[in-house]
Amino acid sequence: MTKNKLRLLLGVFALGTLVSCSKDEPETPVIPNEEELITTLKWQLISVDNQDTLNFLFRDLDGDGGNAPTIETMDLKANTSYSARVQLLNELENPAEDITEEVSAEAEDHQFFYQTSMTGLSVSYADSDLNGNPVGILTNLSTTDTSSGELLITLLHMPNKFANGVAAGDITEAGGESDISISFNLNVKP
Predict the structure, then answer these.
(1) In which domain, by residue range, is 64 found?
(2) E strands along the chain, which residues?
(3) Number of domains observed in the structure of the chain
(4) 12 assigned to some structural domain
């Protein structure tokens, strides 16, 4: 056997050994952005004059189906401005995992939307991502007249923040996937 043939056989053997070793190793799937479990949404409003702190709560510890979620709401005052902060938790973890931290860290990939048909109620963004687009963890809320209705809070993952109206809070052309969507019944009272 010549040296060239011996080298060729050794090269083929080495290549076969490498290929066979790599096949024996289990493949681990890579999940680029696995959804977090969100059991709880807290929405805290503090009046600009610091006279009122309102805490709205949605909690569903057993997920879809099973027991009905807990939804706690409070009445808003007419002709009042509030600073608001939303917080998302996974309370099945001990201690509870604050999902809001992940949303904040991945702000370019998330946006909260606040939708209502109530008259005399407006919500505006008070935070933004690195590109200057809204996120919605922090908002400002203002009331004028007394009214009642619903406010739908939706968190979208991977919305098109450059689509028409999205920066102003219009969810119509945002796309993306809903991470959570919660409706609160609101009453604005004198």
Answers:
(1) 40-189
(2) 40-47, 53-59, 70-72, 76-77, 81-90, 97-98, 110-116, 121-125, 138-143, 147-157, 177-189
(3) 1
(4) no
